């Protein structure tokens, strides 16, 4: 059969898979293919700095996704992985895993994002870190997030969590017990929106990150 037929068939499959999944871009408008990126609030100043890892309620473990209080602190960069479409870039509006780009040295856990169980019906579920998700593993759906565009600013995004691919909930932030961190939901008074831009991290910056910052 004509080789062109197979080429067109493959091209059609790629276009179909990416019809609703444009590439995520960084603050400079460059497409994100791989590497580490700082997650920085769109609005600088009182909104705080980048993401970090933090504890809650005086317990050393588990660790949660927190936010630096100072706008000059970029925190810990993240990496994206495990999206289903076979595109080389990080796609919008598609389930993927997010990992804090730092080597774990305690708590015996990796640093992939996971949605925890809400402490009570009237409180938000926190975003914690946990083991690398296993395909088809128990509760692995709690480790998949999506990146969606916002209208706040050019090249600005938000994270969302879509249970079973539907009923998406924005990832927001709140402050509880003196700890500022990421939660499910973005509606006051329980949480506020968390709209961000991505800033590329250099290799030397990521190699210097250790858990000792906690």
Can you describe what's shown?
With 214 residues, the chain is mainly β. It has a single domain (22-200), classed as Trefoil (Acidic Fibroblast Growth Factor, subunit A) (Trefoil). The chain contains two helices and 13 strands, in the order αβββββββββββββα. Strands 8, 9, 10, 11 and 12 form a five-stranded antiparallel β-sheet that branches. The protein has a two-stranded antiparallel sheet with strand order 1-13. The longest helix is centred in the first third of the chain and has 16 residues, at 3-18. The protein is globular. Mean pLDDT is 83; it is low at 3-19. Keywords: Signal. One of its GO terms (molecular function) is endopeptidase inhibitor activity. InterPro entries: Kunitz_inhibitor_STI-like_sf, Prot_inh_Kunz-lg. Residues 1-21 form the signal peptide. This is Trypsin inhibitor.
Major sheet: size, sense and barrel closure?
A: 5 strands, antiparallel
How many separate structural domains?
1
Order of helices and strands: HEEEEEEEEEEEEEH
% residues in beta strands = 25-35%
Number of helices: 2
Low-confidence stretches: 3-19
CATH topology: Trefoil (Acidic Fibroblast Growth Factor, subunit A)
- Rounded to the nearest angstrom, the distance between the terminal CA atoms is 60 Å
Basic shape: globular
